[in-house]
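[recover] target loaded
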């Protein structure tokens, strides 16, 4: 007898601020070395990317972008310290059969969703070195579709075409930034074809 059709998990996913600070320090040193190497060169003010030549102007512009990135990271880190939680919400099929036409609705009680907040991105490299790859977000598996995605200030929802036994999927394919406090909780309802009524539950944030 099935006691629970679904499992819901909140996965907190903050940026690795220490790693990014290390990256920024290394890039700033890299920029200084290149600017210094251009001193006295006739083409120091000329940029010819096809020939691997990057001039003073471009290196200084890249340095400014690094500064902006550093400040954006610091602002986000302070926001997170102040109760802004970046998280993925994952739903799993706990049954031994495929569930279809799944609808997930989550309401945030005593908290707010900052749907326009995104983690800052590293500035694009200007010297042909590879940029940081974008983190991969799980979009689903073969035959899986996610539709009717909605995000509001205090709720979010989505529908899945199906989930096989033991499979799981993110409700939203990116982090949601949720402002939380000691009273914040997530109330959720999950339904699927053939269920007599939605499965409901509550996820409470462990805030000290």
């Amino acid at each position: 007898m099935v006691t629970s059709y679904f499992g819901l998990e909140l996965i907190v996913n903050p940026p690795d601020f220490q790693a990014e600070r290390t990256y920024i320090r290394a890039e700033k040193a890299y920029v200084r070395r290149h600017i210094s190497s251009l001193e006295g060169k006739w083409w120091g003010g000329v940029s010819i990317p096809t020939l691997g030549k990057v001039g003073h102007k471009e290196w200084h512009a890249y340095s400014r972008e690094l500064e902006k990135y550093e400040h954006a990271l610091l602002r986000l880190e302070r926001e997170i310290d102040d109760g802004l939680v970046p998280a993925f919400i994952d739903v799993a099929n706990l049954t031994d059969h495929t569930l279809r036409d799944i609808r997930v609705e989550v309401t945030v009680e005593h908290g707010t969703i900052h749907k326009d907040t995104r983690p800052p991105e590293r500035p694009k490299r200007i010297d042909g070195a590879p940029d940081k790859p974008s983190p991969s977000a799980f979009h689903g598996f073969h035959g899986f579709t996610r539709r009717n995605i909605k995000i509001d200030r205090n709720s979010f929802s989505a529908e899945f075409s199906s989930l096989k036994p033991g499979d799981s999927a993110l409700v939203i394919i990116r982090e949601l930034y949720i402002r939380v406090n000691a009273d914040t909780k997530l109330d959720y309802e999950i339904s699927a074809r053939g269920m007599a009524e939605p499965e409901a539950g509550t996820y409470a944030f462990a805030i000290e």
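[recover] notes: Residues 185 and 204 are 4 Å apart (CA to CA).
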